[in-house]
């Protein structure tokens, strides 16, 4: 049965026009975001304009928020790359999308056509991957669809998504269709953090049935790694985190064991992990780091 991705909303009357709306703008590195009125241009060829329904904060937003202007950082900028939106209008040459459909913007492009996108072994699109990560504008022509509502100043895009705005414009290769029955506050986590974690266990490490997995750091990505390992049939999933409360939470995602590095005395975490594993099993041990900082 075809998944229902269509919203029960009438066609928009804004197609082809500039939309004025609110966005959280980052004017300078490390400064508080300011919510101001902006202008969002209509989508050009291969582009889709989305009304953002829900967006969440990923640690990469914080990393870029702090970053001094340089090769991958420019201000003013609209951050945000985990979100769920509904298609407001589509540009020329866009096929397979129409207004009212529910969409998950994903910062990693998938053109479905290049050698890397056709391969199960890569997720870095050969045609657009690098441009999508380092650019400040739209994927194909590099220009911005955002203007400051009062001065007309160009506002830069972020990771091809810029979801800290009521409306944004995204290239069609950065969109995945999702059903309308998934709660938006959960679906938006699939846009980056949860996919990263589940994918690390499922695709990158290819965790095997019956194996042991150690996860360093139990934030959103680490917990998603546990979920991916559980789905792949790992029999022992060890979480390592300084916050003891993460064990109870982690059990819901498949954790079977927990190590708090502050309560193991002079032992190293690797020793504790080693002593808890049966050497007769002879199965691979996977270790996955999800921490940004290790103290
Ligand atoms: Zn992210
Ligand atoms: Zn590609």
In a nutshell, what does this entry contain?
The protein has 295 residues and is an alpha+beta fold. Helices cover 20% and strands 23% of the residues. One zinc ion is lined by residues 58, 60, 81-82, 192-193.
Tell me, what is the CATH class of the largest domain? Answer: Alpha Beta
Strand order of the largest sheet: 8-3-4-5-9
Which regions have little confidence, pLDDT < 50, spanning 5+ residues?
none
Rg value: 21 Å
CATH superfamily of the largest domain: Medium-chain alcohol dehydrogenases, catalytic domain
Structural class: alpha+beta
Query: Which architecture of the largest domain does the CATH hierarchy give at level 2?
Result: Alpha-Beta Complex
Overview of this structure, please?
It is a single chain. The protein is an alpha+beta fold. It has helices at 59-66, 115-118, 129-134, 184-187, 193-204, 220-231, 246-251, 269-275; strands at residues 19-25, 34-40, 47-56, 82-90, 102-105, 146-148, 154-155, 167-171, 175-177, 212-216, 236-240, 257-259, 285-289. Helix 6 (220-231) links the parallel strand 10 and strand 11 (236-240). The site of one zinc ion has 6 residues, from loops.
């Amino acid at each position: 049965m075809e998944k229902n991705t269509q919203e029960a909303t009438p066609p928009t009357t804004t197609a082809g026009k500039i939309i004025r709306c609110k966005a959280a703008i980052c004017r300078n590195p490390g400064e508080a975001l300011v919510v101001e009125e902006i202008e969002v241009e209509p989508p050009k060829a291969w582009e889709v304009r989305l009304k953002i329904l829900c967006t969440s904060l990923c640690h990469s937003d914080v990393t870029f928020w702090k970053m001094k202007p340089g090769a991958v950082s420019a201000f003013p900028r609209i951050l945000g790359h985990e979100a769920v939106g509904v298609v407001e209008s589509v540009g020329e040459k866009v096929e397979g999308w129409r207004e009212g459909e529910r969409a998950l913007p994903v910062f990693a492009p998938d053109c479905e056509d290049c050698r890397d996108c056709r391969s199960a072994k890569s997720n870095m699109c050969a045609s657009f991957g690098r441009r999508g990560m380092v650019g400040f504008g739209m994927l194909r022509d590099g220009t911005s669809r955002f203007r400051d509502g009062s001065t007309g100043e160009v506002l830069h895009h972020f990771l091809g998504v810029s979801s800290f705005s009521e409306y944004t414009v995204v290239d069609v290769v950065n969109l995945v269709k999702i059903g309308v029955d998934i709660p938006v506050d959960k679906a938006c986590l699939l846009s980056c953090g949860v996919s990263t974690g589940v994918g690390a266990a499922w695709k990158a490490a290819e965790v095997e049935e019956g194996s042991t997995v150690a996860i360093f750091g139990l934030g959103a990505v680490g917990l998603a790694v546990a979920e991916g390992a559980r789905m792949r049939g790992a029999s022992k999933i060890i979480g390592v985190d300084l916050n003891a409360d993460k064990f109870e939470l982690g059990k819901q995602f498949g954790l079977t064991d927990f190590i708090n590095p502050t309560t193991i005395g002079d032992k190293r975490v690797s020793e504790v992990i080693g002593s808890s594993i049966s050497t007769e099993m002879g199965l691979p041990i996977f270790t996955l780091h999800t921490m940004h900082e290790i103290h």
